[in-house]
Amino acid sequence: MQKKNKKKTESLKRVHRKSILFNRKEMNAINRYCRKYKIKNKSRFMRETIITAILQKFDEDYPSLFEDQPNLFASSNRDY
Q1: Which pLDDT value is given to residue 5?
Q2: CA torsion 10→11→15→17, rounded to 10°?
Q3: Residue ranges of the domains in the chain?
Q4: Count of CB atoms within 10 A of residue 28's CB?
Q5: pLDDT digits (tens, 9 = 90+) for 5-31
Q6: Contact call for residues 42 and 30 (beta carbons, < 8 A)
Q7: Does residue 62 contact residue 73 with C-beta atoms inside 8 Å?
């Protein structure tokens, strides 16, 4: 069981670094948000926020069976 846990831990280890720059207003907004909601780990907060946005976008873009779903309440040019 040790090997399995170690392998899983190694696969989740963060080894890829990215840097991001903010202007003064953006940084002030982030700091204010973190103070208001008592966020102590900004790195974790930003990582989770970015990944959440990405996963939501993937979910929105996921192909569906009916790409153009009919709108039953839209007005049409047909006279019935």
Answers
A1: 72
A2: -150
A3: 22-59
A4: 11
A5: 777 778 889 999 999 999 999 999 999
A6: yes
A7: no
